[in-house]
Amino acid sequence: MRGILGADVFINLLLVFIITTGLLLMNTNKAGKIGDIVKKEQNLLKIDLPKGSSKGLPGGKPGNMATLSAEKTGEGIQHFMDDKPVKFTDLTKILKSKRISSVRIRFDRQISYGHYISVLDLCKQAGIKDITNVYTTNK
Predict the structure, then answer these.
(1) CA distance 8 to 93
(2) For a surface tag, which of 15, 69, 100, 101 has the fewest beta carbons within 10 Å of its beta carbon?
């Protein structure tokens, strides 16, 4: 009688629930896609990225993805889309015209947080919802 209405049935149901939830939430990224993003990252401007403690995720959808980089040059800031220099005032127009849906942001660690927020705002104005921050890990 214990197996029918007792704790054994509930424990089995709990185990099935835990296992299936874990399988559903597994990361399904394929190594090829991640490798492509890492190769693309190596071709970009070398800037002093902030450091983070987690390994992070490459993020971004492979389709219409762009990488926005910014480097502090003296008193000014130079912006790049992928590896091409762009003006800050043209960013929204360029993002909209290229129908970019995913952006990776790579900023020099010496750029102010206020400027970073301005770029985030420009991305939101362009309709971009998938925004990933790029940083280096502490090794």
Answers:
(1) 62
(2) 15
Model pLDDT for residues 54-98, shown as the tens digit of each residue: 554 444 445 688 888 888 888 888 888 888 899 988 888 888 888
Residue 31 scores a pLDDT above 50: no
Query: What's the CATH fold of domain 44-137?
Result: Nucleotidyltransferase; domain 5 (3.30.420)
Helical segments of 1-139, H only: 2-5, 7-24, 31-42, 91-97, 113-125
Residue 20: both structure tokens together: 């299936």
CA torsion sign for 85, 37, 100, 70 is negative
Residue spans of the domains in the chain: they are 1-31, 44-137
Six-digit token pair at 23?
A: 């399988």
Contacts of 132 (CB under 8 A, 6+ apart): 57, 58, 59, 60, 102, 103, 104, 105
Q: Residue 59: what pLDDT? A: 45
Show Cβ contacts of residue 99 under 8 Å, excluding neighbours closer than 6 positions.
64
Structure tokens that stand for 80 in this block: 């790049």
Helix (H, G, I), strand (E, B) or coil at 55: coil
